[in-house]
Amino acid sequence: MTQDELKALVGRAALAYVVPGEVVGVGTGSTVNCFIDALADSGLRVAGAVSSSTKSTERLVARGIRVLEAGEVSSLPVYIDGADEIDPRGHMIKGGGAALTREKIVADLAARFVCIADESKRVPVLGGFPLPVEVIAMATAQVTRRFAALGGTATLRPGVLTDNGHPLLDVRGLSITDPLAMEAEINQWPGVVTCGIFARHRAGVCLLGTASGVQTLVF
Ligand code: 5RP
Predict the structure, then answer these.
(1) Which of 99, 100, 111, 186 could disulfide-pair with 53, CB 3.0 to 4.6 Å?
(2) Which residue's CA is the nearest one to ligand 1's atom 6?
(3) CA gap 196, 194 in Å, rounded
(4) Which residues line ligand 1 (CB under 6 A)?
(5) Domains and CATH numbers, the chain
């Protein structure tokens, strides 16, 4: 199977976690696009979706799914999103699509994070994928120096501003052996909006697309 077919497979598999009649949290990315299409095609009736990006909102609306603001709900039964890397304990790197801050906000509303990914995203230790970090523009140089002190090389993602209007750093060379501690450390540096380590908001379930079908990992 191609990577696109694996993404479509897990996008459809995620429908089993959607609670009919409730609002669903929706992430961002090519795998989530497959989920949005599967949801629209399924005939499953949801009360709407809370979206993590302009791109997902546009796709949801185009497919006839009502989009609610995060502030309109106090909780969500489930949040469905992809990942750039996922480790053996369900910790993830996210933000390849620049939506990490809103993704973490919507994930925080949800009782359960269901990660959908093809098997290439599974890694023993996070950090092979450059870590996305959304920053306030004036702090870019300071935050870059802090990463250098940790052995990381941060570069601005060219031509990209997040939906919140901020630049993004991509940090190479980190070996994230303690994701919880590193997430907490980075998030308290002045000027960091959000770092793309999802450890406090790790996946509860991962639906992994493999050549032999969907593998369900429960953390
Ligand atoms: C967007 C993300 C995505 O979930 C992540 O980049 C995976 O994307 P894809 O499903 O296209 O591989 O974090 O900010």
Answers:
(1) 99
(2) 96
(3) 7
(4) 27-31, 81-84, 94-100, 103
(5) 3-124+200-218 (3.40.50.1360), 131-194 (3.30.70.260)
